[in-house]
């Protein structure tokens, strides 16, 4: 599902997003480099998983693509149009091409709107169809996501967490987008409901030929749903590969640790939890050089001083680590 | 959560879908003190609207024959003057009934001024942030730094003493309270995902503010409005007492207090009954406001 | 070598009386924990796992809650017969609790060291100075670097993982015999979670403390628990040693749960996950018969009419299901 001659739907180049941290007197006391120079391609029709722990910038990156956050630098090219430089007016039609599903089923729906209004809002804003026609579209969307269409006049608080996420999915689908950013869409749900929503997302992808950027901290969910996976750490992508390549042959030390740390629902082997020490560095003050060197058991002097670039290990498997880039350079010599 | 359905089962027929506002009003129902407040407010509203049909006499009609008659249960009371008369022979009951109308009018006008201007400024400040926010909030800070009565006095002195100008002054003085509340709510709601979702759908700023954000800021606003009524009535009475608000012969409660000051010992009723009305009106609005605060507080929901 | 269990819960039922009806949060739950053992309690929202632990600690707000029946024996004492004062001597002292949200379970206006010392001063009567010294030792034990200076930090100066370590230190302060950990790692990142679980295991081995670990994550259970309790809608539906549970899950709910988790191990194609249809029933309106029957693919007529008992079937482990009973 990831041939190299597939169309590229979205290209990110050099995207940087900083947040200022205000000190006591309102003066700038620090900068959090939430996204620190990201280059990424998203192919049409694929699911690109984006994993990382809190503070790595994965959610911020998703929002930057949609222009919900304004990056300081970089380009977001949606089929050759730079989303970031469009005027506000020109951005409106672009909105119907890219949508987002949020993590929190409780704060992502306006408590004062009926779910019919919530799901149909996109249609209203973009003036699609007549009023009565819109209601029918909303009903069929509700049916598609597994909600009962006769509940169109109800309010969000009358629904469970899983149902609310379905409402969010219906809302995202309403404008027939090509790309949907799934920002931790199942993290706040019970395990058995997670499975229902994951299945729904996969079914919809097949039916509507959607492209997903699936942001999550849950490695097993990402493994299940993704075609390729990118791993982020403190604002940078540290590894990017086809799903199987990543999970079978994790190359970046952080990816290796991440995979080892995830609890597996199997009894038997004593869990190997070595290899990771220390706390996540504060994003206000990321380590110099390779951001991961403070917790890496194989860090060298070079790692402390210089920042590695993404190296291609072959077959599209990219790693940002001197251990690999040096080796590749050696092999080439 | 009431009425939460399961995916497979049908909802209980007795479980009606209610908007969040309707749910809140239902909760209000159960709060005793709030109901008392509501009743008092309703009575005053009734008096304000139908006062001129209920009042037995013309509040401005003077008569030397009926000067300083006491209330009906006391000796030497005069027929038809239930609560007695003042030193111009005017019926006290009619005057305080008309006073209710004036006080309610004061409440409505001044609260409307502060509500509208305060909400718009607060919403703009909270939504756009940056220098707009700083500018607006500094102006509000200045207004808040001056004691409200003092500020009202200054405004009235500037515009000239009259009930109208008193209403404007009170309205202006209270703007910062509303602006702050709205700004705070807007800031909080803006960060919520549903607002970001609407942005992602392409909603314009106006739509975001008026359709999404402001309706969710109503709770503290409603409470402030109700309590604001109470303080408006008090402030109007204070200004009139000082001679800066309603001018004689207008039957405004505060003005009546001022006029009856010299008569406290001789004819206590001239001061007491207007005073009681102020007390009841303010109490009623405060109780209602407190009850609304409890009913609308999302954290107190189950 | 049969030991006396440290904690025996027998037929515990806790209900909540609301104006919309009675929520039967915990119904007839029984289990025991031996010294030095980790019991995992697994289930999803509304299954009663948290209410069970709060009942053991007698922290259920009354009203609207009430422990309507059951017996809780801890270290030979009947906890339900103690008065509040006696119960306070046990909380934080013999039984401690670790909560889920490290952000909100520490008081933001007190230093971390003082919060740890509080329990020590309260239960052991040490002086403030001595208690603080013990706090430094505890911080070291839970793996916080530079504990001598960190002891003066405020919670907001620490990361989530560190705060959870502080919570563990607080829980350990008076050398309790039992720690109840309610979703202690759910709010933490995976790598920090691994460290915290490692820490809890190590401490359990060093101090012999028993742990009641509540979680919805089967992976965590597999890696840390010895015995497991699976709960659904207020009932225990399956009870087993951890190995037995994962090699031979019997209750349809347990099996459904295991099958709906995307695995890290397998290499299957992008398939649909098996799901459990429907949602958890409302505790105010529980279905007649087996509480799981309306979501169960194996449901029989009997399941809608009668609720099964928790019984051992075929010499394996106790399970509450008609499939295994006559």
Describe the structure.
The complex is a heterotrimer of chains A (333), B (302) and C (326). Chain A contains eleven helices and twelve strands. Chain A has 333 residues and is of the alpha/beta class. The model of chain A has no long low-confidence stretch (mean pLDDT 87). Mean pLDDT of chain B is 84; it is low at 1-15. Chain B contains eleven helices and no strands. Chain B is an all-alpha fold. In chain B, helix 5 (148-159) packs across helix 6. Chain C has helices spanning 49-56, 84-90, 102-105, 112-124, 128-141, 147-150, 160-172, 190-207, 218-224, 242-247, 252-259, 301-305; strands spanning 7-18, 21-33, 38-42, 65-74, 77-78, 95-98, 178-182, 210-215, 227-232, 235-241, 311-312, 318-319. Chain C has a six-stranded mixed beta sheet, sandwiched between helices. A four-stranded antiparallel beta sheet of chain C has the order 2-1-4-5. In chain C, strands 11-12 form a two-stranded antiparallel ribbon. Chains A and C meet through helix 6, helix 7 and helix 9 of A and helix 7, helix 8, helix 9, helix 10 and helix 11 of C.
